[in-house]
Amino acid sequence: MIPITGGEFVIEEEIGCVQGVGGGNFLVMGPDQMETFTAAQAAVEIIHEMEGIATSFPSGVVGSASKIGSKKYKFLKASTNDAFCPTLKDKNPNSLVPKGVNSVFEMIINGINESVVRRAMATGIHVICQMPGVTHISASNFGGTLGAYKFYLREILAEKPYYGR
Question: Is the pTM here over 0.90, yes or no?
């Protein structure tokens, strides 16, 4: 234990590392920010029960949909996906925010292999679709530039979701 001003910092003495699969993602959209976030959090709770899965952002939910690179700052590897910003939908001719949507959260799921990422995505989407306030599910494609793995939502929905322990 390492003493810190906010309590104690505890870390494992040894940790392991394995190669995995990153970049499973989908977008959760709805008219109300709190309902949309609550739905995303419900999905994260079940996804976190699954073996071999990691959601790499605080609370498991990304507060701002991401994209590869940046229009303005060439040195950035990733930036906010302005096409999914509800506050810009009336100003951005390339907006992908559906009518009535005022909140968009991104779920990014990484795992030990493609199969577990697919199942975690299916699980998250199934949970979210049962929650009030969510009107749309979509995904960021990035033109296939994100990596070797491609997760297509229509195929993902054919996966058998995990329903908890």
Answer: no
Question: Could you read off the pLDDT of 93-136 as tens digits, one per residue?
Answer: 999 999 999 999 999 999 999 999 999 999 999 999 999 999 99
- Residues shown for the chain: 165
Say if residue 8 is exposed, middle or buried (CB neighbours under 10 Å; 0-12, 13-18, 19+).
exposed
| Pairing mode, strands 53-54 and 103-111 | antiparallel
Which CATH number does the domain 19-156 belong to among 1.10.10.60, 1.10.10.1100, 3.30.1050.10, 3.30.70.520? Answer: 3.30.70.520
Residue 117 · residue 53 · CB < 8 Å: yes
Element (H, E) at 23: strand 21-30
Return the H-helix or E-strand segment holding 125.
helix 114-129
The first and second tokens of residue 13, run together, are 């003495």
